[in-house]
Amino acid sequence: MAKYLSVALESSDVDLRIAAGEAVAVLYELADDEAAMPETIVDKVRELSTDSNKYRSRKDRKEQRSTFRDVAKTLDGEDAIYQIKMVKTNDVMERLVLDSWKSKKQYDSFRKVTSSLARLRPSSSLLWQVLGE
Known about the structure:
Blueprint: H1 2-9, H2 14-30, H3 39-48, H4 58-75, E1 83-89, E2 92-98, H5 101-115, H6 124-131
Antiparallel strand pairs: 1-2
Helix pairs in contact: 1-2, 1-3, 2-4, 3-4
């Protein structure tokens, strides 16, 4: 699997690189052995967190560096990603804490699916069921 992640991290497509970086973070969180992540992948993540290649658009560089800084922090054993989202459901604002890469990816996927169904307003109970809370 490390071979495929390395190839994806080297891709010219920024979305694929970011997805691979996020996958590295999720796998690291789920691994029982913290030393299981190959050093080549950790080094590549650190390199991408400071990438300044001019042939990439400014927007792509900014998005990539932001994501990979968070991934690098996770791999360095610092606090995992932590975000608070305010979610409006049924005219009520609720606070949603995303404190792991797993919950962030679940939330992102949930938003992607439900945004394509713009007329459907998911209930807060559905969101909490998806996130396992």
